[in-house]
Amino acid sequence: MKRTERHHLKENELAQTLAAASEALASRKSLIVGIALALLVVAGVVGGINVWRRGDDQQAERLLADAMVTFNAPVVPATTTASQPGEVPAAATLGATGSFATEAAKLNAALPKLQAAAEAYPDTAAGITASYHYASSLAALGRHDEAIATFDDVMRRAGGNTLYGRMAVMGKADTQARAGQFDAAIATWTELAASPDQDLPKDAILMELAKAYRASGKQDEARKTFIRIVDEHPTSPYVAEAKTALGS
User: Fold this and answer.
1) CA-to-CA distance for 168 and 85, rounded, in angstroms?
2) Which residue stretches of the chain have pLDDT < 70?
3) Could you give phi then psi for residue 75, rounded to 5 degrees?
4) What is residue 4's predicted lDDT score, i.e. its pLDDT?
5) Are 157 and 122 within 8 A, CB to CB?
């Protein structure tokens, strides 16, 4: 076969291939357009969700910031007076905004703001932070059952391997002990002490566990736990306290 004829055959094959491809595209044009539109819709939805989430995060952070201003406000007893002649008396004596005469007054003022921040955007980082501080405030005010329930909620939302998840478990155990629920506190502290999580302060946990044992009248268990602190954590700042407890 001559070179010219072979060249024409290749051109014909190429033309036929292109024609077939064109026909295939034409027949599937509606399908391709539909897929393209669907991809555009998905991209738009994803983009909208991301923008919405950013908006939620920003609003949650604003609510948390407002709550934390009250939560971190100074406590200045109303009886405090100027130490030197001519000094301005304590802010609390003047009823100044942002100062509180007692810790309880401050926490009671912070509670509704923390609760609002926690409930408005519960699954955001700011919402979880607000929930934790809300729980700790309830505990400090003696509202133990509410505090424990809120700590449980923080644990569920934050997850056990996060900072606030760990802090919530310890907060729950401490609240149980404050409420006189020593068996429950012992169970929670024991679970924490046995956890493989290396980020947990095991020496502090053992100290709280020993105190819970002692408060519940279980002196043998308390003694064994104090010994664990001395043996397992010889450089811990709690060793001196543990040795004192053992000596007594």
Assistant:
1) 47
2) 1-56, 78-98
3) -105, 115
4) 53
5) yes
Give CA–CA dist 244/222, Å, rounded.
Answer: 13
What is residue 101's predicted lDDT score, i.e. its pLDDT? 84
Please state the three-class secondary structure of the chain as a single string.
CCHHHHHHHHHHHHHHHHHHHHHHHHHCHHHHHHHHHHHHHHHHHHHHHHHHHHHHHHHHHHHHHHHHHHHCCCECCCCCCCCCCCCCCCHHHHCCCCCECCHHHHHHHHHHHHHHHHHHCCCCHHHHHHHHHHHHHHHHCCCHHHHHHHHHHHHHHHCCCCHHHHHHHHHHHHHHHHCCCHHHHHHHHHHHHHCCCCCCCHHHHHHHHHHHHHHCCCHHHHHHHHHHHHHHCCCCCCHHHHHHHHHC
| Per-residue burial over 98-107, b = 16 or more CB atoms within 10 Å of its CB, e = otherwise | ebbbeeeebb
Inter-CA distances, 222 with 146, 216, 237, Å? 28, 9, 18
Answer whether 187's CB lies under 8 Å from 151's CB.
Answer: no
pLDDT for position 189: 96
Question: Quick one: pLDDT at residue 61?
Answer: 87
Number of H helices, E strands in the chain: 11, 0
Sign of CA dihedral 174, 186, 203, 238: positive
Provide the pLDDT for residue 52: 41
Q: What is the pLDDT of residue 203?
A: 96
Q: What is the pLDDT of residue 49?
A: 45
